[in-house]
Design a protein that fits this description.
The protein has 215 residues and is α/β, with parallel strands linked by helices. It is built from 10 helices and 8 strands.
Length: 215
């Protein structure tokens, strides 16, 4: 096999989480007296963790105290509702099953909160990943390579035997910073033209295309 390990991003790559993220942000905004955001807007906000999502979603020049309150409300709501509307993209479960049948290890590295990454992996992909990691204290989030490096070390895989799968400019930069190969997908939160402009070389339109690249 060309690769021993496939590392997936989560939002926009293996799971369509946009409706639950939008509902959670809008709950926090409305509870704080601010206007709602559209799904289209939230799609452009995600990728750099909860704090950045909130910073991009709130009106300009709000206080740090208000930011922290919105963050708290978002987190509490999302913990209770992160699986309400979220679903795997078509063909993703089959892809992961087939990768593992070939003896390829699988992992998730996401800027989503670590609690949500674990819960969503348990809910939709129970036992299908060798490691899964989200944003947590003490480790730099993407596009820093730290989480990818931790997975490589934890699974004893050389970086030239690993590939990162993602849907955003953050994922492109993450793979570049970690010095591993990258495959981008166009079914997520960024379109093909944007991904090409950000430096993507390989963009696929179906999970089965990824399986074909493993040989």
């Amino acid at each position: 096999m060309k690769y021993e390990l496939v590392i997936f991003d989560m939002d926009g790559t293996i799971l369509n989480t946009i409706d639950d993220l939008t509902d959670s942000l809008n709950y926090a905004l409305v509870q704080s007296g601010y206007p709602k955001r559209t799904v289209r807007e939230v799609r452009s906000f995600v990728g750099n963790g909860i704090r950045k999502l909130i910073e991009r979603g709130v009106p300009e020049r709000i206080s740090e105290n208000s930011m922290q309150n919105i963050h708290k409300r978002f987190t509490e709501y999302y913990k209770a509702h992160c699986t309400d509307k979220t679903r795997p993209y078509n063909g993703i479960t089959e892809l992961i099953v087939n990768l593992r049948k070939k003896g390829i290890k699988t992992a998730v590295v996401s800027n989503k909160a670590d609690f949500a990454v674990h819960e969503l992996c348990r809910q939709y992909f129970d036992g299908m990943f060798d490691m899964d990691m989200g944003e947590m204290q003490g480790i730099n989030k993407k596009p820093a390579p730290d989480m990818v490096n931790k997975v490589l070390a934890g699974l004893s895989v050389q970086r030239d035997k690993a590939v990162y799968i993602g849907d955003s400019d953050v994922d492109i930069a993450t793979a570049r910073n970690a010095f591993i190969d990258l495959i981008c997908v166009d079914w997520g939160f960024r379109d093909r033209d944007f991904l090409y402009k950000c430096g993507a070389d390989i963009i696929v339109s179906a999970p089965s295309d990824i399986l074909d690249m493993m040989e």
